[in-house]
Amino acid sequence: MSKYPSRYRDEGNFSDPSDTLAQQGYLIEIEHVPSKQRVSFKAYITSFNDTYSPNWTPEEVYGRADPIYNYKNTTRSITINFKLPAASESEAYANLAKVQKLAQFNYPNYSTLSDCDGVESKTVSQAPLIRLKFMNFIRSAKGIVVSEELSEREIYSSYNNGGEGILGFFSNITYNFNLENDDGGGFRVFDQEGQTAQYGTLVPRLIDVTLGNFSPIHDHHLGWDENGVFSGGISFPYGAQEYRCRKDVSENQAGTTTLTEEENDAIALNVEAAELDVLGTIA
Prior knowledge:
Largest sheet: 7 strands, antiparallel
Number of domains: 2
Oligomer: single chain
Strand order of the largest sheet: 2-1-7-8-11-4-3
């Protein structure tokens, strides 16, 4: 369960089923880019929000009822809330060490400089960028390979949590140690013999963690081209691939696809039905 040595008599035959899920990739994984150090947490998610915000700047024009809107960009913000329960005292200590490491990830790297007199000073060399990965929901779509040669069932069964985390930074990280709650509190820390409690020390039984307003810095282009193809990849942002039914069509010498009259009529009816369904939903 933990890399920390256990001295607790209640852990000898203890088995935590959440460890099995963690080994299968049900994790929140965070990498500190400058140091390459990582920390991971079991995914006891209480809330997960992924917000996309197109930014438009209004320009007021005399005599016009509506402003003229100029598009600027589209930003993305991610917030995750999760719990770190401890099934044992050693896991409680491990959880505390993990959130301590995560807190350290929010500080920059420094380089030491020396002047002619040998006086040393420190200067910021790297900002505290991180990579965040949460199963198949938060990951970089860069490098994810998709195929149009697979069947609908094959596409679904090959869906996984591959890829690395998304580059970005947190606006804030909040810990609630629940020391005052009945379902929280803490374990007292004892000496190596387990006889005497260390003076004024506790490890929390339950830690609530809020990863607030993670701002992704996507390392690949996002947007549509003139052919109606999304340049960020059809798997952006969650890695899922839409199945496209492939029909037997003939191609002429110019390389264009020729559909029969019946196929064209069927496509037109499908488009019309889809539009009516959307209008009905809006109404």
